[in-house]
Amino acid sequence: MEEKSNEHYLDDLKEIRSMMEKSSRFISLSGLSGISAGIIALVGAFIASWYIKTHIENPSYTLQTVVMVRMEDVLFLLLDAAIVLFLALTSATYFAVRKARMQNLPVWSKAGELTLINLLIPLATGAIFCLILYTYNIFILIAPATLLFYGLALLNASKYTLAEVRYLGICEIVLGLAGMLIPGYSIILWAVGFGLLHIIYGAVMYYRYE
């Protein structure tokens, strides 16, 4: 009888812990969101790489020559990045809502609100910073800057969601800093950060939680 009582007590503790985690952390993030975002980013990076090779004559990765890149080339690459961002956010939202409904979780919660706020502050700062780089014609640093601020945003929001988000953020920051030091590999690092890492992260999340 005592052993059954202890097991019942442990089950109650696990249930209480689960309820507290659901109320304090945004756990509706789906691994499929990461996988879909990663695939979309890889397609966007491929398009950007193809455009650079076929439309920019003798592309050089020194800051002095990048200033001479045509404005329409920069606008095309920015449009490509914007479309990637829109599609990635759309797919992430779809799979998050889908997971919440399948697991009978609230689609929106206080934890979700805190996650979004802490995510948007560094992202908005990074967007303004990239606009400043654009204004000063420092185009080659825009791609690594997006990695850097995205990583900071994930790190900032990770305390309100799953722990794996923190490690993804750290990896994005490292890639962003590497891109600042070796801007000639910005497209490759961008593809790794937004593409490959998201796919790996999504697969791990799907395996562990779904």
Computed over alpha carbons, the radius of gyration is 20 Å
What spatial form do the alpha-carbon principal axes imply? globular
Helix fraction, binned, reads over 70%
Largest sheet: none
Structural class: mainly alpha
| End-to-end Cα distance | 35 Å
Mean of all residue-level pLDDT scores: 80
Number of strands: 0
| Uncertain residue ranges | 19-24, 59-67
Taken in chain order, the helices and strands follow as: HHHHHHHH
Tally of separate helices: 8
Count of all domains: 1
Strand content is under 5%
Give structural notes.
- There is one protein chain.
- Helix content is 80%, strand content 0%.
- It is mostly helical.
- The chain has one domain.
- The longest helix is centred in the middle third of the chain and has 32 residues, at 71-102.
- It is globular, with a radius of gyration of 20 Å.
- The model is unreliable at 19-24 and 59-67 (pLDDT under 50).
Describe the structure in brief.
The protein is mainly alpha-helical and 210 residues long. It has helices at residues 2-24, 31-55, 63-66, 71-102, 110-135, 142-157, 164-181, 186-209. The protein has one domain.
